Amino acid sequence: MHNKKKLIILGVAIIGCFALTGCGKEAELENNHTVVKFDGGEISADTLYETLKDKYGISVLIDLIDHELLDEKYESDDEEKSTIDNQITLMKSQYNNDEEKFNAAISQYLGVENEDELRDLLSLEYKRNLAIEDHIKDNIADDEVQKYYDEEMVGDMQVRHILIKPETTSDMSTEEKADAEEKARQEALDLIKQLDEGANFEELAKEYSDDTGSASDGGLIDYFNKDSNMDEAFLEASIDLETGKYTEEPVKSTYGYHIILKTDQKEKESLEDARDTILDTLMEEKLNNDASLRYESLVAIREEAGITFEDDNLKKEYDDLMETLIQNATTNA
User: Which CATH class is domain 155-265?
Assistant: First the structure.
């Protein structure tokens, strides 16, 4: 992969000067011109092509293909530039912003000789990611979107809560911590009993809640949804509650024991308005759940563009490489 950009340029120059013709088995140059002469011999364009193809052909060819397919569809913009700038800043920080060490590292590990070549490489990867995401979203069925909307989407919720924190310290024994946990749970149960007997939720929150951020406001947590940074147990309990009801058992979270009262819930947005968000969510889930999907999508994108190989050896190398990448992604997931 060293001198990758130079090889790409050289490959383009060769193809531009000598049109490739397919013989069904191997691509050939129509005019096998001499590239270099010396006393007693010469190097032909055909020899040069075969050598480049054997040593670098498939990796350079894949990049050339993807550049042709993606550069026009996904024009570089400010978001891409910002993303690449951030990536390079992070990479340089790993080498204490030492330019010499940084350039040596990207040459050794990425096969690029300078920052400009690195930007070209990262730009192609950025566009591949966009294409992969679009391909996955284009292949998500309407009934899958509908199912997610019906089962997962909820309207924004407003709740009040009372938090009882266990009084534990790091030097406590396991038994002492368990006792403190149980004491907090019993205190929460006692407060639920007071609510059952008609006590005012807001007043109890002001007096007893250990959540200093909301206690003075009667335990109010204003409208939130699944994308909020909320404890999972707290979120699920809030979703399950009917408006006007409070939890009959304390809800255990990472912070302690909660009593939650749902005060309001808005209507969820329409399927039409939520579609893009749902597609993004499902796409991310699919990529996270199937590491091979990235490579399978790239294969499909190239096939849908009508890519055919005029050289059987390159076709086999391509198929073998894609199969290996897919298998490795599956094995290492």
Answer: alpha beta
